[in-house]
Design brief:
Blueprint: E1 3-8, E2 14-18, E3 39-41, H1 52-64, H2 73-87, H3 93-103, H4 108-114
Antiparallel strand pairs: 1-2, 1-3
Helix pairs in contact: 1-2, 2-3
Amino acid sequence: MPTYDFICNACNQRFDVFMSFTEYGKKPVACPHCNSKNARRRMTKVRIAKSDDSRADSIADDFSGFEGMENDPKAMGRMMRKMGKEVGEDLPPEFDEVVGRLESGQSPEEIEKAVPDLGAGG
């Protein structure tokens, strides 16, 4: 059964409700926090599934503009951020740290000096 996200208009708490497609819109929803029936559906982000081939094509397109970026850390950071989103998986916090540093203008050499053990341990 799908999960539907709601916000209570009485207490402003968010909550999830499991119900079938046929129940949605017909079954009354009550807030589990205050028991109010004054709730509205919360619209969440929509994820679009991509095939591995489609994802690989998108990443390859990003790499086509890689030439000359070694001297532009901000552009490299933007490209890496975009590629990270295309992967479709959660990336480690170190990835966000490096990309954030690049986007702020730090060179890869400066990042390596500032965080020498980045990537250590496998």
